[in-house]
Amino acid sequence: MSSIPVTILHGFLGSGKTTLLRKILQQASDSNITPSVIVNDMSELDVDGVLISSMDAVHRDKGNFITVSGVSISSPDGVKQLKQSLNTMCEDKRPSWIVIETSGSSHPLPLVEYFKHKREFALKDVITLVDAIWLRDDYQQGTQLIPQWQENLRSGKRGIENLLVEQIMFSNQVLLTKTEKLDNDTVQTIAKSIHPLNVYAEIIKTSWGNLDIKSLNREQNYNFFLVEQLISELRDTVNEPLNLSGKQGQTLVAKVIKDDRPFHPQRLWDTCHKYLTKGVFRSKGFFWFPSRDDVALLWSQANGNVGLEVTGFWRASVILDEDQKFTDEHRQILQEKIDNVESRFGDRRCRLTVIGQVNEVDHFIEALQKCFLKDSEIEQWKSGKTFDDPWPKNIAKLKYN
């Protein structure tokens, strides 16, 4: 029996892994390919898992989708959960292809080493996504990434640069993401800057997560021989805490905000301008505004960029829509689903994960908490009050810098 092909997607926080995976699944569905997917999220909230499971191609009920949340999949406990997930996924039906999306803080080495010794699987690609905007803004078009990494090595520091460099070193494909915002000269400069880190890897320019699925799951397997020396040199350090440059006593943390109240649109807008710093690497989740209380909104922030996207309608608003012409049975099913959500406002609620440096994350969360509607404002919303809302009204997907 032939081995099951495996593709691994790596990349630092906010590099676009989930966007790419969604595009891959769309192409797979159009091509009548049925991949199985494992999504890893270092947060307990598992936003990425919710986004992926909402697609037609994969679902938990189909047995081809599993999430590993609350832990890095490259940690010892994460590798154990990966093994359990693979056993579960392959128990009843043999997958034709497995795609693994790792969390942003995960290191490739433990997964590469794991699949090296598993004959039932054939590791095809270790793909690292690199945020080209981040390299342009924070590393002088990528030219300062290697010098900063070298300085970390000299000073005995394990910083973010170490993780990004080592993700690239273990890859056989590197995808420069968000290049739609850059001119060709800048993209070329970034590509040339990171090329010395792995001369064997393809560096591919991508926009909006678009990648031809034909470039994945190829006949040739991953070349373990090329990383043997790297594995021996780095094995003991890959799960050490990251020392974040310029900050004393800072570690990478993921904290969750849970509230059923909506955000005040103007206060959230002002907070984005004032409190987003380089120390808040990633925040993501679902929320709602009183000014558009029918739609569920997806918040997606990476470094200083905020994305806003409509993901659907709250059931609490849909059930009141007379144009839907629900039967009594359908209405009862909807109401039961609404009642199963712990919220004062039907199924409306806010769930956000914030990832970054401890102090910066705490400051940002404190600012976000002040954006929720106060009790008096909730009563005003119930009575039909309008709220100042500077966010664009007609959004399918919004990018705000």
Layout of helices and strands, plus pairs?
Elements: E1 4-11, H1 17-30, E2 36-41, H2 47-53, E3 65-69, H3 76-91, E4 98-101, H4 108-116, E5 121-131, H5 132-138, H6 145-155, H7 160-169, E6 173-177, H8 184-194, E7 202-205, H9 228-234, E8 252-259, H10 265-275, E9 280-287, E10 295-302, E11 305-313, H11 315-318, H12 328-339, E12 350-357, H13 358-369, H14 375-382, E13 397-400
Parallel strand pairs: 1-4, 1-5, 2-3, 2-4, 5-6, 6-7
Antiparallel strand pairs: 8-12, 9-10, 9-12, 10-11, 11-13
Domain CobW C-terminal: 252-372
Organism: Veronia pacifica
InterPro entries: CobW-like_C (IPR011629), CobW/HypB/UreG_nucleotide-bd (IPR003495), P-loop_NTPase (IPR027417), Zn_Chap_cDPG_Synth (IPR051927)
Task: Please summarize what this structure is.
By secondary structure, the chain is an alpha/beta fold.
Structure description:
InterPro entries: CobW-like_C (IPR011629), CobW/HypB/UreG_nucleotide-bd (IPR003495), P-loop_NTPase (IPR027417), Zn_Chap_cDPG_Synth (IPR051927). Zinc chaperone that directly transfers zinc cofactor to target proteins, thereby activating them. Zinc is transferred from the CXCC motif in the GTPase domain to the zinc binding site in target proteins in a process requiring GTP hydrolysis. Residues 252-372 form the CobW C-terminal domain. It holds the Pfam family CobW_C. This is Cobalamin biosynthesis protein CobW. By secondary structure, this protein is of the alpha/beta class. The protein folds into two domains: 4-234, Rossmann fold, CATH 3.40.50; 252-400, Hypothetical Protein Yjia, Chain: A,domain 2 (2-Layer Sandwich). Helices cover 35% and strands 22% of the residues. The chain is built from 14 helices and 13 strands. It has helices at 17-30, 47-53, 76-91, 108-116, 132-138, 145-155, 160-169, 184-194, 228-234, 265-275, 315-318, 328-339, 358-369, 375-382, and strands at 4-11, 36-41, 65-69, 98-101, 121-131, 173-177, 202-205, 252-259, 280-287, 295-302, 305-313, 350-357, 397-400. The strands form two sheets. It has a seven-stranded parallel β-sheet with strand order 3-2-4-1-5-6-7, with helices on both faces. Strand 10 and strand 11 form a beta hairpin. The relative contact order is 0.13. Residues 396-401 have low confidence and may be disordered.
